[in-house]
Design brief:
The chain has 290 residues and is α/β, with parallel strands linked by helices. The chain contains 9 helices and 12 strands. The structure holds zinc ion.
Amino acid sequence: MRRTSLFAAAIAAVTVSAAQAQQPPMFATTKVEGTDNVYVFRYQNHQAMFVVTPEGVIATDPIGLARPQAVTTYIDEIKKITNAPIRYVIYSHHHYDHVAGGQPFKALGATFVAHRRAKERLEALKTDHVVTPDETVDVERTITLGGTTLELHYVGRNHSDSSLVMRLPREKLIFAVDFIPIQAISAPGIIDSFPGEWEASLRKVMAMEWDRLIPGHPYGGRLGTKRDVEDLLGYFQALSDEVKKAADAGKCWDAAEKEVRLPQFASWMGYEQGIAANIRRFCGYWGRGF
Ligand SMILES: [Zn+2]
């Protein structure tokens, strides 16, 4: 009996270590290729950009919802690179999975910046696990620190009504979270999005000068390009056209969710799990008027 359970335990241990071998590490900090001072901090399936300058660090999303260790790890990773103070934390948008847990940054004296509507939402919800922004952006703001320029742009409503595009003009990099998934279908987070305005905001991003996009989730681990934004526009146009037809035929919600398919995008990450939620959101738009 005892020998059997030891044997079972040994088998279990081998199985666990084989599974662990295939898992990416819990977190990683990566310097963006070709830059002197731009980093991506990933914790599980979320990631944030930070920029190191001689006068301090500009950090973004704390990504600490229900996992305070993500935030302390983020700060530890920054401290391994520089002793300069963390001067700013900038929120990409108001969703909790990206902005919760920033208190340790606040304790270090960082100034929190977000779009005006992000602050309004967070104040209305009186959430105590998200640091309320100290300063807000309406349409545009430029932060300069230690020789680095970071532009904050509001390009309209899309995945949220508070999404900022953060652009580093010298590096031709942007950091944009959730509203430009890279060859991936967002779901079920599309529930509170703005389908009728999303495409216009993507066109504004296309018109900006940049080469590479740092996303807020790994999406397979690469940076995005303008080609990815064009592909996403193609996806939304196809989805919108097909759901409009279904809505006009009275098929929203259930029949549309079962029948509408976009096989040309079936290889995108999250397609199988996410297409029904995407159809549901566009049924709200074409079938109900918003
Ligand atoms: Zn979001």
